[in-house]
Amino acid sequence: MTTTTSPVYYARRFNQYVSELWRRRDFVWFFARGNIKARNASTFLGLVWWVLNPLLLGLVYFFIFGLIFPSERDIAYLLSGMFVFHYSSQSLTGGAASILSNSKLLANIRFPRLILPIAFLLESTFGFLASLVVFYAIVIPFAGVVPGPEILILLVALPLQILFNLGLAAATARLAVPFRDINNLIPYLNRIWLYTSPIIWPLSMLTGMSETAQSLFRLNPMFPIIALYRTALLGYPLESADLIAAVIWCVVAGVVGIAMFIKYEGRMVRYL
Amino acid sequence: MSRPALKVENVSVRFRPYVDRRPTLRRSLATFRHKETQLVEALKSVSFEVQRGEAFGIVGQNGAGKSTLLRVMARTLRPDDGRVVVRGRMSTLLQLGVGFNAELSGSRNIYLGGLVAGLTKKQVDERYDEIVEYSELGEAIYRPMKTYSSGMFSRLAFAVAMHLDPEILLLDEVLAVGDEGFKEKSMATMNELLSKSGSIVFVSHAVRQLAEFCDRAAWLDRGQLVAIGDAEDVVEQYRAFVQQRRKEMRAQGLA
After folding, report:
1. Cβ-nearest to A107 among B21, B71, B108
2. Is residue A5 in a domain?
3. What does CATH list as the number for B1-89+166-255?
């Protein structure tokens, strides 16, 4: 006999939820692929925009801040940060959008609601992987970067970021579905997040700062996540502090975001 | 006596328009302060059972709570009070073409519709040919669904819903699917479902048709169950009520 507040009860509920999700894995796959196909059908460049958006943004900053980045080698630094950042920042709006644009589905069919943010995440992961290919296509000839054995770090970085993004997408969906105002704030949050992440300014900028200022910048989850990728993609030395911070951030964001979402999803249909 | 396929027990649903419908930050802060709660009761303690092999109709005027009730039965809307017990595989056709992506072909949408309802890829594979044949879409199945007429759209939606092997089918205003020929076929399929001791619940404003098809019916008015029983009796009462209302309104209009 378990009461409705015991951990055993929640563990069992969560187990059920996961097995329901697992049962619909084919749907997630078809749904994500269908969305990509539909996007390709409705815009001329389709999925290419997933890569083009961060690429163009990166190039704009590269030319504008040519003074900050004196060497063309730095394009590898800038683009790696930009692609990784773009992948996470998409999740801020994508989670809520995946719920709001499928309101009919939610009202009519019973299924674990988390499959919609998961399908979105799958879609954006395709885009991110494509952008990594484009990344190498640019930096190998222009910045002389050669992928080394460190690229295996991707096998750690990517799952961690997927977990982080899912948490982010789930949490923002939980908040932005009832409070639509939040959607208006997100572009500004994204802008602040971009400027406080080590993308358009070099890491050396930190060395001139006070201890407190430095640790504030390091509190940004994007900081250790991008650091992991720069090790994987550019062979930067990996600091164990970054690895630990990335793991903590991703696991906490993932668990908290998913829990917030599942706890709330029964009420979601009332706000559509 | 077998157990009912669907049991609705004391179900109440309340919407708080200011908090629930358009909950901006400002409004919800205001609610915290003033405890301003203006409740709209969409359903007030509704109870009934639907037996196996039974066609059950729900009638009522616009805004009576019929669609809310169907959503509660489909368990996509959690009631504030009461509960719903479902015994069997349920398939819902509350709106046509739910889960479909109009940019994609009918063929891909068969997979989307089947998978979201909980079938596996393999199960959809097995039923695919039958669904296409049933929908009578022919080569059009490979065209994007945005090119379909509404009749074609609903035929495919109905075909998918019926091939989920439902034991309980919920329908909202979709009896009039397709042309005469298809209508007959869909009726035959539903009768077959009933004879296999499946259950059908449907909501329709075509009350004459509903009385003919259903064994029992319930009449819902402003969230409350007014009458429940033999379909023809309930529909008769409901029609008398609507005619009376219309007469009163006409009298008021003249006065």
Report:
1. B71
2. no
3. 3.40.50.300
